[in-house]
Write a structure and sequence with these properties.
Blueprint: H1 19-23, E1 33-37, H2 51-63, E2 74-75, H3 98-114, E3 119-124, H4 130-143, E4 147-150, H5 161-166, H6 172-182, E5 192-193, E6 204-205, E7 211-212, H7 217-220, E8 227-228, H8 234-263
Parallel strand pairs: 1-2, 1-3, 3-4, 6-7
Antiparallel strand pairs: 5-8
Bound molecules: zinc ion.
Length: 267
């Protein structure tokens, strides 16, 4: 009997390896360990609360087959519950504090360093984690001696200006990505709900303005959707997943090149 407990990339998934296998990995001195950091939080009436953590797994699964020759990386167990204070007014949201997220990243970094890895990179899928990730990565670099950074993921490259400006959450992009990656989990109830219209001249906005406020989702949305969830399609999702995965694979390859140079290992 065999249960599909591990992901398809089990040969690169650290929890699937034995201590002896980890100790024998020949590229630990330069291959980065990717740490997916997501969230469990409301994503409108039509999407499961696991969207951010689910998409982290989609990116990992899609980037690995696209790694160029000579590139390598390993995948840490994901941090699936993130810092989601802003969504706690809706059922289904779980959250950890900024201090817990920082502590988790620090202990992962310390152990990776102890096992002989020299680089880690966060693959973040939730905006609310970003500030904590950034200062913790600096702390890891400064105090642990592990080179730590982030993989930048640019998806939804061709959304209309209204969506690009006010599509924050459970929006066209997230709906499209989930439709493409996990269609059966999508429910009805997608709506279009924007905090403001493009061209609105107000100076105070949630983001990207001269004056901003630290919003929680009820400030911006009744449905939990901030954007046009009705515009998400399977076709867009598939195209954006492929585009993102290519970019992520290139980013990993860049980390490998840097890691090799630092370790004095030739390609
Ligand atoms: Zn999300």
């Amino acid at each position: 009997m065999s249960f599909p407990i591990f992901p398809r990339y089990r040969d690169r998934y650290l929890p699937a390896l034995t201590p002896a296998q980890i100790a024998a990995l020949p590229d630990r001195a330069w291959a980065p360990v990717i740490v997916p950091v997501g969230a469990i939080e409301q994503h409108g009436p039509h999407l499961p609360v696991s969207v951010d953590s689910f998409l982290g797994q989609v990116w990992v699964e899609q980037l690995l087959p696209r790694l160029p020759a000579g590139a390598s990386c390993y995948i840490a167990p994901p941090i699936t519950i993130g810092k989601s204070n802003e969504h706690t007014g809706f059922p289904g949201t779980l959250m950890i504090s900024k201090d817990t997220l920082r502590s988790q990243l620090l202990v992962i970094a310390r152990q990776l360093h102890a096992w002989g890895f020299k680089q880690m990179a966060i693959l973040n899928t939730h905006g609310g984690n970003m500030a904590v990730n950034q200062y913790t990565l600096r702390e890891i670099n400064a105090t642990i001696g592990l080179r730590a950074g982030s993989l930048q993921n640019r998806h939804s490259i061709d959304v209309p200006p209204q969506e690009a400006t006010y599509g924050y959450h459970a929006n066209e992009a997230e709906t499209a990505l989930m439709l493409a990656a996990s269609g059966p989990y999508i429910k009805s109830g997608a709506v279009c709900e924007y905090y403001a219209k493009l061209g609105d001249t107000r100076d105070l906005r949630p983001e990207r303005a001269g004056a901003t406020f630290a919003w929680v989702s009820q400030d911006l949305s009744k449905s939990g959707i901030m954007g046009d969830a009705t515009a998400g399609t399977v076709e867009k999702g598939e195209r954006w997943i492929a585009h993102s995965a290519e970019g992520l694979a290139k980013a990993v390859a860049a980390l490998c090149a840097e890691g090799r140079a630092l370790a004095g290992v030739s390609a």
